[in-house]
Amino acid sequence: MSISTPTLCKSEFKTIGIIGKYGDADVSETIALVIHVIDELGANVLIDSETIREYELTNPHHLIVDRETLARESDLIITVGGDGSFLAASRSAVAYDKPIIGVNMGRLGFLTDISPTEIKSVLFEVMTGKFQSEQRIVLSAQVVRKGKVIASQIGINDVIIHKRSVARMIELDVYIDNRFLSSYFADGLLVPICPHTLTHRPIVLDARLEQRIEISENNDANLQISIDGQKEIPLIVGDSVLITQYSRKLNIYHPCDYDQLRRLRRKLGWGSEPTPAPEV
Q1: 200 C-beta neighbours (distance < 10 Å), count
Q2: Is 263 exposed, middle or buried (0-12, 13-18, 19+ CB in 10 A)?
Q3: What pTM was estimated for this model as a whole?
Q4: Active-site residue flag, 83
Q5: Judging by DSSP bridges, how do beta strands 223-227 and 231-235 pair with one another?
Q6: Which of 62, 137, 187, 194 has the fewest CB atoms in 10 Å of its CB?
Q7: In this structure, what DSSP letter does residue 74 have?
Q8: 171 and 196 in contact (C-beta within 8 Å)?
C-alpha cells in the first residue's frame, strides 16, 4: 500500500505570478519559500521585475517579467507584502481577470490571508484546488473636464477627494444617478472625512448607482482624487468625478477555513478581554 505525499501532487495552475515589495529582505526570503512550494508542484514561476530586479535564474521555469506580462500570462497571482502590495497587484489582476491571493508581511493584513509560517501548508492546499473564491466589487473613477473624460482608474478599496498639501476645508456637490444628494463641506469625501455638519453621516449606496461629485466654485485648484492611496489625479474647479461599479470583479482566493467575521474579531480586537494595567 502506497501513501501519497505532497511531491506527487500537481498544481491546478500552470503558471504562477509573484508580486512583492521591492528591496525588502524579509519579503525576498518569503518569496523564496513561495517559489519552493511552486517548484514542488511543478508549476512555472513569473516574478515581477519591480519586485526582484536582480535574481539569478538557475531554473528554466523561472522568469522575470514586467507587471503587464505577469498579469496576462499567469493563471494565479500571489502577492507577498502588506495590504498596499495586494491593492497594487489587484488592479493588474482585475485588468486580465486573474485570481489573486496574498501572503501577509504587513501589520494588519485585512486582505492578505497567508502568514509566512503557513506558506507550505496553506499555499499547497490553494494550488492543489482547495480554496474559497470571493468575487469582490471594484470601483471605477473617471474625471470629467469640460465634457471629456481626462483620466480614469479602478479602485479596489476606496476613492477619496481631498486637498493635495494643506489640510483645509473643501466643498463638493454630490449627485446620485443625476439626483442631487447634498453639498458637503468637509476635509474630504468619500464618505466625508471629519464632516463639519452633524447631520452628514455615512450613507450606504447600491453599487449599481452612479455617484457624481462636482468640484464647486468655492474651492481652489489644490485638490486631487486618490485611489487606494496609490493613484492620484489633480482636480480643478468645474471638474466632475464619476464613480460607478466597474465591469469586472476582483477574484480573491482564500484558504478553506477563511472566515471574514473571525478575521475582523482578531484584527480589531472585538470581544476580547481588556489587558490589565501593570501594577506600579
Answers
A1: 16
A2: middle
A3: 0.83
A4: yes
A5: antiparallel
A6: 194
A7: -
A8: no
Q: What are the start-end ranges of the E strands in the chain?
A: 15-20, 44-48, 62-65, 76-81, 100-104, 132-136, 139-145, 148-155, 159-163, 170-176, 179-186, 188-189, 211-215, 223-227, 231-235, 240-245, 250-254
Would strands 148-155 and 211-215 be described as parallel, antiparallel, or unpaired? unpaired
**Domains assigned to the chain:** 6-136+248-267 (3.40.50.10330), 139-245 (2.60.200.30)
Residue 67 CA neighbour count, 13 Å, CB half:
16
Catalytic residue among 83, 113, 228, 239: 83
- Name 173's bridge partners: 183, 214
How far is Cα 202 from Cα 163, in angstroms, rounded to an integer? 20
Please tell me what DSSP assigns to residue 207: T
CB contact at 8 A, 51 and 79: no
Residues 6+ apart with CB under 8 A from 151: 142, 143, 233
Give yes or no for a contact between 183 and 215, defined as CB atoms under 8 angstroms apart.
no
Instruction: Give, for all 280 residues of the chain, the pLDDT tens digit.
Output: 333 334 456 789 999 999 987 666 668 888 989 999 999 999 999 999 988 765 566 788 899 999 999 999 999 999 998 888 999 999 999 999 999 999 988 666 678 888 888 899 999 999 999 999 999 999 999 999 999 999 999 999 889 988 877 667 888 899 999 999 988 887 777 654 455 556 667 778 888 899 999 998 888 778 899 999 899 999 999 999 999 999 999 999 998 887 666 666 666 667 666 566 666 5
